[in-house]
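Worked example 4.2. Below are the chains of a multi-component assembly; read each line carefully before continuing.
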Amino acid sequence: MSDLLESPDEVDLRAGVREMLAAECPWQSVLAFVSSGGEAYDQKLWRTLGTGMGLAGLLVPEAQGGAGAQWRAAGVVVEELGRAVAPVPFLSSAVVATTALGAGGSPALLGQLASGELTAALAVPYGLWKAPRLLSVAGGVVTGTVRGVADALGAGLLLVPAEDGLYAVEGSAVRRTRVVSLDETRPLCDLEFAAAPARLVASLEAVPCALRAAATLTAAEQVGLASWCLDTTVEHLKSRYQFARPVGSFQALKHRLADLWVELTQARAVVAYAVADLASGGEDASVAASLAKIVGSEVAVRAAEECVQMHGGIGFTWEHPAHLYLKRAKATSVAYGSPDRHRARLAGLVDLPLEAS
Amino acid sequence: MSDLLESPDEVDLRAGVREMLAAECPWQSVLAFVSSGGEAYDQKLWRTLGTGMGLAGLLVPEAQGGAGAQWRAAGVVVEELGRAVAPVPFLSSAVVATTALGAGGSPALLGQLASGELTAALAVPYGLWKAPRLLSVAGGVVTGTVRGVADALGAGLLLVPAEDGLYAVEGSAVRRTRVVSLDETRPLCDLEFAAAPARLVASLEAVPCALRAAATLTAAEQVGLASWCLDTTVEHLKSRYQFARPVGSFQALKHRLADLWVELTQARAVVAYAVADLASGGEDASVAASLAKIVGSEVAVRAAEECVQMHGGIGFTWEHPAHLYLKRAKATSVAYGSPDRHRARLAGLVDLPLEAS
Amino acid sequence: MASLITEADLRDRISAFLADHDPAAAAGGGDAERLAFLRARFDAGLAWVHFPAGLGGLGAGRVLQVVADEAFAAAGAPDNRPGRIGIGLGMAAPTVLAHGTPAHHERWLRPLWTGEEVWCQLFSEPGAGSDLAGLATRARRDGDDWVVDGQKVWTSMAHVARWAILLTRTDPDVPKHAGLTYFVLDMTAPGVEVRPLRQLTGEAEFNEVYLTGVRIPDDHRLGDVGAGWKVAQTTLMNERVSIGGGALPREGGMIGVLAKAWRDDPARRTPGLHDTLMRLWVRAEAARLTGLRVRQQLAAGAPGPDGSAVKLSFATLSQQISAAELDFLGDEGLRRDSWAMSRPEEVDFTGRDAGYRYLRAKGNSIEGGTSEVLRNIIAERVLGLPAEPRVDTRVAWKDLPR
Amino acid sequence: MASLITEADLRDRISAFLADHDPAAAAGGGDAERLAFLRARFDAGLAWVHFPAGLGGLGAGRVLQVVADEAFAAAGAPDNRPGRIGIGLGMAAPTVLAHGTPAHHERWLRPLWTGEEVWCQLFSEPGAGSDLAGLATRARRDGDDWVVDGQKVWTSMAHVARWAILLTRTDPDVPKHAGLTYFVLDMTAPGVEVRPLRQLTGEAEFNEVYLTGVRIPDDHRLGDVGAGWKVAQTTLMNERVSIGGGALPREGGMIGVLAKAWRDDPARRTPGLHDTLMRLWVRAEAARLTGLRVRQQLAAGAPGPDGSAVKLSFATLSQQISAAELDFLGDEGLRRDSWAMSRPEEVDFTGRDAGYRYLRAKGNSIEGGTSEVLRNIIAERVLGLPAEPRVDTRVAWKDLPR
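Applying the procedure described above to all four chains together yields the following structure tokens:
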């Protein structure tokens, strides 16, 4: 059985990332980022995080200039980024795109990604949960469109799954249209490849693995997000008085938060299992990834919705951060397969089919 | 739009039935009935109700010795019987079997049913929700089995749907095996027809109508049942003290009961609509019946479960009536189609299919 | 008791009125024609027929209002844009009528009903939401005036309102319910500052209203000094009645949007979402039938508590249905029309995008009384369950912990 | 601090013990052989290895208990039927150890562990369920004895128990938590009457226990007079730890029954039930993984609050899963095996019929602390939310409303 507890190294990593984010990414700056609505991601924060702390290369082997760390470390980082709804392309570039390149990916490319100077995005819809639609490459150029890609707006490189492999296309060679996104902390964009020059950089082999990692680590992000919502709601309810009592002393709210805590505690265990299983090579990885994505999505949305509701009017305003979490929660619940999609997949994996076989 | 409010006559009828049941059918007698486990139904109560109050013939035309009343009146009676979990075959005999006989049924038979001296049961499984399985009649005898029929154990007559019509078979001519039933206030039994003499008494035409009425009026029963559970729980929580406070002052319980009250209020409106729609000839009757059966089943089960839980330990004992309601609630949720079955049927009726057409 | 107007009487009066005042011309003309028509309708007692004669009504039964509104609509007459002046019609008017003087009635009711003067409500404060009676906006007597300082919030229409109903604290030394006084505030008075309050949808339906040394003549007080809580009950009770809402056909509300999306897009259907859809369809239809039953109760002159069920389930359903729509739309649901800050005067649940519905619906369980407060009310007033131990009702307001 | 026994040490001791005591012979022999083996295991310190030396243990870490139990099981040794003596092992033993005298330890622990003497717990009363500290069973001092009168309820195993842990009120004139005293009661003493308590499944797992003039020597008191609440905390804390439960494989619990029913009966499958099934499967697996994580925390010597999540979700899940099974079975689920009143000593969630599971599961959110009390505990002790206003903690017990 996997070890579901955090190692001392992981505890340290979490503390370091959290401390950095507290200083560099308070919610006020995320709100300002979203309100200005122009940038693809927070570039200053990404420099600090990706390059300064070296997290861009967390999963890149040491030989290619990365940290060669385990999935478990990535899980810790993503969870903390989720707590902060940080507008940086760690998950899309340093996890999904990096994994899609796989062990056989170009060392030079991996090196660039590891440095944080280049970010890449896998050119698939954010909600993708099964094999991607493959574009056609002929004569070294790719043509076609992909809608609603996460973090592609600021990516230097787009990784395009095509019939015979994964191709790299320079971001500047693609027509990118920003989508007015439900979650503006991770804006989507539509991609239009019009005979864009493309070079083969890897086989498609690692793409399913990247999508599995994407689902699993999105769940880690959701656990972080839900934690923030629960913690923030509890603090608010301790200090907010109505009827000359702290609102947190009202039993109906206490019971709902207790239930939410139970759900979050379970999600934490499930995500720990799923990340550990990715790390161990993962014979149960598909089951674990679906499980994590379901449980993570449910707790994130519920936590964010309760956070808005229990803050009363203030939680409904633009000036309070709750909505940043609500929008991220709902968007991530779609990302890499909704709970509904993963339940259907899980049914097949654990031999509980709807139809008679 | 149907009138969803109760008429003065209906208010009077309700009061009369409730008063009678308070005197003749307190929960202690239902518990004694269930604990002894021998009888098919409470014969003394049925004499008072069916014959004494004339309710056995409520839906039988006056020409055949009945009251010629409307469905709405039957709804009132059934709701009150549900409040009392009364172990009498009103729903199965005076509603379902009587309706199945239809306008073309034998006047003599209807007269006997109206008098309350004879009870009949439609020989279909209690959970039936679509067209019944048809038995074969040849040479004036019927052979075959039907499992899990409600109130058939004490029925003088069994109405058997066969290919060419509805046949009547004397109860004594059938091998009847009592089922140890989840709801012993309405015990099921298995029927074995071994060349039992059968006579044609009606066409099959009225059977779908009977099943629709069965679903609708079961929902009325469920509303009555849920009302008892809510009322009883509220009374208990007002008088039970823990922590030197009435338990009903704890907000978490108050909120759950408020939600239950909302659900019950809605179920009441839905059932009023569905019963009125049956009465009016019912162009929307199938939609209304499915709607009522879904909403009624859900509120009954939830109310009974909350009743057990909020009574604490005492609600878990045999000596408290809560379990009578819990078992009836769960059994009626299966009766004449579970919510799941009715949602699927409804989807077809309101053009919201699962599959592309 | 004088005999009430019958429906036939009313129809006769309306016919006579329409013979004298061409509805089509009023509707097709400019603002002046429209206004002239509405004023004449008011003066004929055909505005709110259950109001007293001389104040826009005929002292008729409340039931007949539907008859009047339908008759004028059928004739193509212009209406008073009720969506825009809902607070005036639903809350201010009954309160002015019940607690105002004849001079108040004369001054305020006609322009309120015609829509010439928009009203808003200054009750909620940042520190007093569910606990409205705990509010802190202070009014101090100064000669024939009162001087008001404080901050109000969640005020829809404040930026276009001419008048406000205002609840203030005039005595902090008594328990909180006893120290309140109710005024009508001139929104153009010096010291009234209105700021838009942006909400999570990006827009600003609501405002914050800052009151700094605002003078209100004592003549604009409704009810006695210290009786503000009682006066406010009139306002709030009418709010609850009016929230019962209009009669919709099946699939008339947000569920219709989801059902249409489902029908239009077979490729997105899954068994799991179908189950959710059908559960919501059933609950929406149950809520709709409950609303119809409430209207029948009202019409029969027997209003019950069932209206609370309508408001509570509306909030839950609008949130669940809009969430299900986003789930159904998947990737496409993550696209919004705009985050621009606009100033809508009405909530448009069926015209905007799915993201708007999901976000805006979050307000339904907060505005007009949170779902939590509503559950308390149902538990205590409908079910008769005992109140929680109270720590705030016998202490002077100024000494309460906050 | 003395160095603890290592796992290797422990394994050596077990091997040596098994070389001297043939486990197979003990298991295959009669009661006498079995008992002799268990007594020897106790005396060798291999019973509960974290207990002190001389009292069945070695003062080892709690983690090592699993090692010992597995080693004995692997060798085919007879066990002490822990399902039957759970209250003794889980609650009475830690309390006797923590608050008893050496004489108490000597007298009670060995026969408790070997199962020769079954224990039960006399805490709950008809009037004191969630509010345990409000209990009314009275103990009055009389010479060297106490005389006890009262009624206890929900006592499993009382009909076969030799001893009980008993919480009584010895001083009604002080606030309720201060007036309690804790005893060990001889269940064979005159005045102890045990009556089966039939439950909604038809059976009677539990009992009511009537105490009428029952004499208990003062020597059987655990802790000081008036310190009963503190002593009871030891009992209850250990109850909560022990409820964390054993490690099950995937689909090991009630969900496995539902999954099997689903696999065995394709004709009953519907899309709606499939959605429910998968939601429950996911929640059951999440609960299982949470349980594993709790065990890892305990093994690492870092017990956290997550165990509360396990108990709470177990209750919810067992109810939802058993309800879903009935929904799946439809008509067939309405048939039960029997309503006969029997006296089962264990809950059998996987061996009985679906109706039994549905009904019995209703008790899971009541017994051992209601789900409501558990939510209060989580909210206050884990999340740190403030307590409700209390009206019962400063008043003499006798003056409390009830």
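Take a moment to check your reading of the output against the notes. Chain C has a mean pLDDT of 93. The radius of gyration of chain C is 23 Å.
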